[in-house]
Amino acid sequence: MDEVLPVGKLAVYGFQHVLAFYAGAVIVPILLAGAIGLSERELIHLINADLFTCGIASIIQSVGFWKVGVRLPLLQGVTFTAVSPMIAIGMAAGGGTEGLLVIYGSVIVAGLATFFVAPFFSKLIRFFPPVVTGTVITIIGIALLPVAALDAVGGGAHPDPTNARNLAYALGTLLLIVAIQRLFRGFMATVAVLVGLVIGTLVAWALGDATFAAVADSGWIGVTTPFYFGLPKFTVAAIVSMVVVMLITAVETTGDVFATGEIVDKRIGREDIARALRADGLATTIGGVLNSFPYTCFAENVGLVRLTRVQSRYVVASAGVIMILIGLVPKAGAIVAGIPHPVLGGAAFAMFATVAVVGIQTLSRVDFHDHRNVVIVGTSVGLAVFVTVQPDVAKAVPEWAQVILGSGITLGSLTAIVLNVVFHHLRPRVAAAVTGGPKVRLDEVNAMSRDEFVATFGTLFEGDARTAVVGRAFAGEPFSDAEALRTAFQEALHTAPPEQQRALMADYPDLGADVGEDTESCRDRSAVGLTRLTEEENAEFVALATAYRERFGIPLIVCLREVGKRDHILRAGRLRLTNAPAQEHAAALVEIAKVANHRFADLVKG
What we know:
The protein has helices spanning about 5-35, 40-65, 85-90, 95-120, 130-150, 165-185, 185-190, 190-205, 215, 235-265, 270-290, 300-310, 315-330, 330-335, 340-365, 370-390, 400-405, 410-425, 430-435, 440-445, 450-455, 465-475, 480-495, 500-505, 520-525, 535-550, 560-565, 565-575, 580-605, and strands spanning about 75-80, 295. The chain contains 29 helices and two strands. Strands 1-2 form a two-stranded antiparallel ribbon.
């Protein structure tokens, strides 16, 4: 991720990102200009300004400085979520450049608001467990596929699904990308999308279906200057609308950051989200000054990172430099714009579907034995697809709600977040009504007898020896708060006699062994997909568990919810085989404590 590649590779990989990104980058100014009545000359300036600012924003996000920029291979682009609100703001102000000035005023303020709200929004990261992030990432990929499909049948205002040539270009480009990925290794495989786009465009040009006439009509230099259309105007209604847009966009950015973290194998924390959102806010403010619009991480290019496996953030930075140059040279932009829609659509199928695959990969860590998670994912994906395939349903609701129903990504993401809160975070009484599984309140714990206490909290540990450990924790009641209760269990575990600790360890099931479907162990295992192993995969875990038990006399105990990936479990387990028995005794206690902490969080109302 931090590797600085040779200049030649940076340029080629960066240009591949630009080609994959270009159509999505320019569609927002095109839609806006047509809706509020801007001239062709004004539209050209908007496109140049958009590309120029996209480059700056991408460099800020990928390279970063101070506490701004997440420093991941994330490319920035104008958010589609803002299209409808900006059109409404522009038309309410009379359209044309007058409307544009009011839009820019709201964009500048919303960008500043996002910048300063970022650290507070990032504290909500606990509301983005894998069931939410996986759902959001999957929805992003699915919701983008109709965009690829529209391009594949000709794109624009008049697509032609019956045109055999469009189908040939789209499927031919897709098949070429797949063939290159299958037949080649190394550099060639990583530029498969670029090669597909170039060859597809050359074939279309040779057959007369691609034209570059606009190149001759475009100028060599086109510099965007601050406040080109005039000083921005500020109205309360417009600012409120744009702030709402940026809050919704923050959810999408959070999903993109988690998706990219999944791809580059980086654990995403609160500060990462804050840095990403600060970059969004700063880029949006710069956009308002330089005649552009609100910015967010572009999911299209997340798929490209996964597809090519080129993870260097400096590749995205080089794409930013290329976009700045294109923004300054309209002729260069005209060349890129000459790529036929069907060719772009064929490449987009590969990239967008890959985003959905990343989401599915994240969802593989979700416990679907818990029916609440099934409801969260199913409802969110269902509503997202509904709005995506039937976009006109947004017209059935008031204008203020159209910003939500106007986008499958927005509606699906918000649904996943809200349902996660309803099912996993509401107070016990409400949760009981919705899920049938209320959490235990502290006042209820302090009113328990010893037997009730042991029966309630016995699930934190495994086997018969847990009764003694949980009973030792009961001696600390009454408990002042949930943290005091948690600490009592930790103290009881770590201060237990060695023989009692050894007996407790012996009762934990081996990795790869059968466990009951309704047990806590099964739920822990399903979080990382260990309940869905093939015979060969299961054999690897059985072999590791057997070797560990032969060496140390206890099962290999791992807090599966904190490991995340199966290969990491195997790698860490093999390393632990080289430890001393005393070290593994201590390590096993630590892992038992971690497992208990997660189960405690599931059981007790904090």
